[in-house]
Amino acid sequence: MLYPARCNTSATAPGAPRELLGLVEALPEGAIEIPWQGPAALVVEHQAHAPGHAAVVMPDRGVFLAADMLSDIEIPLLDPRLPDQVSAYLAALDRLEGALTPEISTLVPGHGAVAHGEEIAARVRMDRAYVEALRRGEDPGDDARLDPNATYDPEWLRESHEQNLRLARA
Question: In sequence order, what are the beta bridge partners of 106?
C-alpha cells in the first residue's frame, strides 16, 4: 500500500488538505504495479520509515519516486511503532538499490532536491552510512543533514536523530 486510506490528517500530516485524502485509495496488498492508464509504475514496498511504505519506479520514464527516503536534507527516520527498524531500514535500502536499474536517471524524494545520475547512488550510500552507524551503536551525528546550519529545520532533525539513537540502542 502506498498510503493508508484511513488517516488522521491533523495528527499524521499536518497541513495536508483533508478533502483530498478520501480520494487516495490503498493499493491491494502485494500489488507490484499501480493499476492505472499511465506509464508503468512499479511498487517497491518495504517496512522502513512506516508500515507499508513504498517507492514507485517508472522505468519507461527513468524516474524513481522514493517517497520519504533518500533525501539530501532529511536523515532516515525510524518508525518507533515497528520492531528492529535498523534492520528493516537496511533491508529497504537493499530493495530500493536493487530497483535502481541503469534506466533510472532521476530520483525524486519526498523531501529535498531531485537527484540525477551519480547523485542517486550517493543518496543510497548516505542513508546506508547513517543507518549502519546506528547498527554499530555509533552516533552518526556528523551527517551533513544534521548540521546546525542546515536549512531544513535542524532542531526537528536533531530530535528525530535522538529518537533514532534511542530506538537503535533499545
Answer: 63, 116
- Per-domain boundaries in the chain: 1-30, 31-169
Whole-angstrom CA distances from 22 to 29, 67, 73, 120 are 19, 20, 30, 33
Burial 116-132 (b: 16+ CB within 10 A, else e): eeeebeebbebbbebbe
For 31-169, which CATH class? alpha beta
Backbone angles phi, psi at 57, to 5 degrees: -110, 130
Phi, psi for 22 (deg, rounded to 5): -65, -15
Q: Give this prediction's pTM.
A: 0.84
15 phi, psi to nearest 5 deg: 90, -10
User: Would the CA dihedral through 25, 88, 65, 166 be positive or negative?
Assistant: positive
Largest interatomic CA distance in the chain: 47
pLDDT for position 13: 61
pLDDT tens for each residue of 63-110:
999 999 999 999 999 999 888 999 999 999 999 999 999 999 999 999
Please choose, from the candidates 33, 88, 25, 35, the residue with its C-alpha nearest in 3D space to the C-alpha of residue 56.
Answer: 33
Q: Are the CB atoms for 94 and 125 separated by under 8 Å?
A: no
